[in-house]
Amino acid sequence: QVQLVESGGGLVQAGGSLRLSCAASGTIFSINVMGWYRQAPGKQRDLVADITSDGSTNYADSVKGRFTISRDNAKNTMSLQMNSLKPEDTAVYYCKVVYRYFTYWGQGTQVTVSS
């Protein structure tokens, strides 16, 4: 059983920065994949970035060079540093964790970027 707690969402002006965090708790030995997805109003949920247990990362083309994903395996936490934010980044951001053969989702945190 894994519980996910997200934090860091909010309102920011275009060009600003935010840092999202996701903390996983429970009886956890090693999380396979941690990632961030986002869903804007009227659109499907898409991958933003993910990171494997060995540190390999994958980014959506729209965020490459602006966002950085990281994880701390000792703390079972994950962060998404978002720089140079654009209005089109506005969405609900969801933490996703794959642990063994189960997938877990966070509640989501709202990120709003004003023009």
Written overview of the protein:
Helices cover 0% and strands 58% of the residues. It is mostly beta strands. A hairpin with a 6-residue loop joins strand 4 (33-39) and strand 5. It is globular.
Based on the structure, what is the oligomeric state of the protein chains? single chain
What is the N-to-C order of secondary-structure elements (H for helix, E for strand)? EEEEEEEEEEE
Contiguous uncertain segments of 5+ residues = none
Shape: globular
Helix content range: under 10%
Number of helices: 0
Overall number of strands: 11
What is the residue-mean pLDDT, rounded to a whole number?
A: 94
Q: How would you classify the helix and strand content by structural class?
A: mainly beta
| Main pleated sheet | 7 strands, mixed
